[in-house]
Write a structure and sequence with these properties.
There is one protein chain. The chain contains 8 helices and 6 strands. It is an alpha/beta fold. The protein has 2 domains: about 130 residues, 3-Layer(aba) Sandwich (Rossmann fold), CATH 3.40.50; about 80 residues, Orthogonal Bundle (DNA polymerase, domain 1). Strands 3-2-1-4-5-6 form a 6-stranded parallel sheet, with helices on both faces. Strand 4, helix 8 and strand 5 form a beta-alpha-beta unit. The radius of gyration is 18 Å and the shape is elongated. The mean pLDDT is about 95. Bound molecules: magnesium ion. Magnesium ion binds next to loops.
Length: about 220
């Protein structure tokens, strides 16, 4: 039995499912701290930045702040010299950091070949919390620009709100019960999807938590 037996459509998460976002983010922050002030944030810059990103991106996903504002809030908390900076200065600083990150964007092993193989079999989409323009750029870098993109900035709500999955299923011409969501985030890609009536597969590289859904550690397992 294949994991996708009985499925009419597949939805993939993007960051840390298709694009190795965490590795790029960590490399980006290291390079940027080095460039701005290597004496500051010795050692735990990556951990501090990760925590700030998690906290403020969640606020964006929940509609509390704008996309740009969650970036600025991270910077104000991260750099003392930017704690009172004006928006345009913060935006320039973020662009400098982000260029380092983007230079390190790369696919998760097996992601591109898996998506390309599945596209020949059934409708495939990418359902991601984030800004549509930025997420589309990531898909282009992966060589997956033709895959249907559903980014939360253009949806009625972000994952794990049921509306996010429902819209994506409808747009793919499928129904929730015939659609499989694949992603690395237990809340957004597994539990939320299941509450919306989808089947879910947890892409958990090295994780040892228990899951209510089948777990894979390599996306190519979907092709079996
Ligand atoms: Mg993810």
């Amino acid at each position: 039995m294949g994991l996708l037996d009985g499925a009419d459509a597949v939805l993939f998460d993007l960051d840390d499912t298709l694009l190795d976002y965490s590795t790029a983010r960590d490399a980006g922050i290291r390079a940027w701290v080095q460039q701005v002030d290597a004496a500051r944030h010795t050692g735990d810059a990556v951990r501090v930045w990760r925590e700030l990103e998690e906290r403020h991106f969640r606020r964006y996903s929940q509609g509390e702040v704008s996309f740009d504002e969650q970036r600025r809030a991270r910077l104000r908390a991260f750099w003392p010299h930017l704690s009172e900076a004006a928006d345009d200065e913060l935006d320039r600083a973020f662009a400098a950091y982000f260029a380092h990150t983007e230079a390190a964007w790369s696919p998760v092993p097996g992601a591109v070949e898996t998506v390309q193989a599945l596209v020949r079999r059934m409708p495939v989409g990418v359902l991601t919390n984030g800004n549509a323009e930025l997420q589309a750029r990531k898909l282009r870098v992966l060589g997956l620009a033709d895959v249907a993109l559903f980014a939360s900035s253009e949806l009625p709500a972000a994952k794990p709100d049921v509306r996010a999955y429902e819209v994506a299923c409808t747009e793919l011409g499928s129904t929730p019960s015939r659609t499989v969501m694949v992603g690395d985030d237990l809340t957004n890609d597994v539990e939320g999807a299941m509450l919306a009536g989808l089947r879910a597969i947890w892409f958990a590289r090295g994780a040892d938590r228990t899951s209510p859904a089948p777990v894979i550690s390599d996306l190519r397992e979907l092709l079996a």
